[in-house]
Amino acid sequence: MVRFALRRLLVLVVALFTVSVVTFLVPYASGGDPVRTILRSRVAGQALDPSAVEALRHDLGLDQPLILQYLDWLGRALHGDFGLSFTSRTPVDQLLGSALGVSFTLTAVALGAAFVAALPLGTLAALRPGKRADTAVTFLTQSFVAVPEYWLAPILVLVFSQHLGWLPSAGWRTPQYLVLPALTLALRPLAYFTQVTRAAMVDVLKAPYITAARARGLSQPQTLLRHALRNGLLPVMTLFSLWFAGLLGGSVVVEVIFAVPGMGQLVYRAVVNHDIPIIQAGILSIVALAVLVTTVTDVLYALINPAVRLHDGSV
Amino acid sequence: MHLRPRTSASTGKEPDPATGAHLSISDLRVEFADHAPAGGTPPVDGLDLTVRSGRIVALVGESGSGKSLTAHAVTGLLPAGAHITAGRITLDDEDLAGCSAGRMNHIRGNQVAMLFQQPKASLDPTATVRSQVVEPLWLRHGLSRRQARARAEELLHDVGIADPDRVADSYAHQLSGGMAQRVMIASALAGDPGLLIADEPTTALDVTVQAQILALLRRKQRERGLSVLLITHDLGIVASLADRVAVMYAGHIVEESTTQELFTDPQHPYTRALLRASLLRSEDGRLFAIEGSTAQSRGLDHGCRFRPRCPVAEELGISHACEDTEPTLHTCGADHSSRCWASPSPDRMVSA
């Protein structure tokens, strides 16, 4: 098991190195000259002084060969120093630290809630396929998939903030501020988790080891808890880690609507402003966190299902 | 089915103290609720069977004869959609067919245990062997954690596992099929049941392992005085293990006798065909087959269910009787009953 975890860690390091190269290069490939963008924002409308352009280019280190820029960037990134934002001149690691914390919290709460709700819903549907509970759950989850976030979010604000006054409509201060954005984000993953749980449980409940467990005298609830659920949640765990990676930097719409200072907003604005240090560090940290979550999931998966620990004779 | 000749199995009678009926099934019918077209025969229809205390009864027949459904009906673990629609299943003087779900949970594991065809697939891949062997123990006795752990290893040792502590901490994928079936036997016996239902317990195992598992079953049966209902299609296993044999065809029993008697003097044409198909080879070395398939016997609402495949009916010129009226399972010799118009009967002889 330890060897399995170590192997996964090695894969993680290789993945991060590859990603660092790609994220470093991507902003350069996207076109546009960051130096001119920055200067234009300062002198609004006037012609640019060519010597000022070159001076700033030198200051930002953008006149160096790309490979040197990369090595320099990587060396400092390894110490957590991602340089200064081109536009606001604040250290990138500070901007990133707070945004990453916000996004991680929001994603973890939304997906955690979706996971916890999906297991009983999917199991309920799987117990009697095609019967009333199954139809109801399927209908519910399919409508969740169809609801767009930019429609749901204002509705939730209207109901829970405007009419009922229970929850704040926007911002990020106390845990109450988390509820509406997390709810908005959770709905679609909840639908997918439920469907995958249902499909997995339908298969698991037909497995000989379920009948064998009943034959040993376990009641149906005991069998579900002790044997069916553990096997049924394995595919949902995989889906969980995929969604985690996606939502970390991909919840721009929800972040904008609820004024959540997360990664989606930060990176989106950086792209618009050609703020290369933020883009590079942002993407790298999103990917790093995503790969880390995937690795943790893989290790958990192997802990639950020992048959996964391939090439590893010892338990 | 009034005026049925008394079968030697004496279904539904009070258990005789000496050789009392441990399990007695009478006129059992199992049907699938969802797809029951009018006129379709239920997969188990009018089945009578008795397992006396401490005896091994083999239930034999080809695939689709309803053997496994019968076994699952006894344990109350019929697949989704299948239901018992008629008949009685009496275990230790209690009718199981009308039992509550809670009562059945108590009976399973404690009074009746089961072995399955695929031992490895019958173990939860995410749980250790120990946790699964222990389950009937904590359900029944409320043993402490440590006591249950120790008892599990004892049980594993008793089924011939040399290193029970290592096996107890293993998972299904680390075991061979034979080892997994030993584990299943240990967990089946953990709740100290009186009746063991073994549904093709060695079919998925290779031949040498088969012999070991059968020997183990025989030893456990003797040690504990278990009653065993052995479901199999392998007459070799029947010959080596069973005290009595019931031959099942198209949902009911067509012949029932002691193993010795059945092998030396089979009465029903289906039994004879089955024996010939599994034990003999023709002169050119080819295996004998039974003409036709069980599908031909589905949907027959009158007459003998084996009639479409029967070589005897035509030969003896009794096909009229066979087509009109279903023969009853009647006594055709000492401790021997058959469901065929051509079998000898004390109260009627067939003119042939």
UniProtKB/TrEMBL annotation, chain A:
One of its GO terms (cellular component) is plasma membrane. InterPro entries: BPD_transp_1_N, MetI-like, MetI-like_sf. The chain crosses the membrane at residues 104-127, 139-164, 233-258, 278-304. It comes from the Bacteria. It comes from Streptomyces antnestii. Residues 100-297 form the ABC transmembrane type-1 domain. SUPFAM superfamilies: MetI-like. PANTHER family: DIPEPTIDE TRANSPORT SYSTEM PERMEASE PROTEIN DPPB-RELATED. Pfam families: BPD_transp_1, BPD_transp_1_N. This is ABC transporter permease. It is found in: Cell membrane. PROSITE patterns: ABC_TM1. Keywords: Cell membrane, Membrane, Transmembrane, Transmembrane helix, Transport. It is a multi-pass membrane protein. Its main location: membrane. Signal peptide: none annotated.
TrEMBL record, chain B:
InterPro entries: AAA+_ATPase, ABC_Ni/Peptide_Import, ABC_transporter-like_ATP-bd, ABC_transporter-like_CS, Oligopep_ABC_C, P-loop_NTPase. One of its GO terms (cellular component) is plasma membrane. Residues 1-21 are annotated as: Disordered. Keywords: ATP-binding, Cell membrane, Membrane, Nucleotide-binding, Transport. Pfam families: ABC_tran, oligo_HPY. Residues 23-275 form the ABC transporter domain. GO terms for molecular function: ATP binding; ATP hydrolysis activity. It is found in: Cell membrane. Its main location: membrane. It is a peripheral membrane protein. One of its GO terms (biological process) is peptide transport. It comes from the Bacteria. The keyword Nucleotide-binding applies. Belongs to the ABC transporter superfamily. PANTHER family: DIPEPTIDE TRANSPORT ATP-BINDING PROTEIN DPPD (PTHR43297:SF2), OLIGOPEPTIDE TRANSPORT ATP-BINDING PROTEIN APPD (PTHR43297). This is ABC transporter ATP-binding protein. It comes from Streptomyces antnestii.
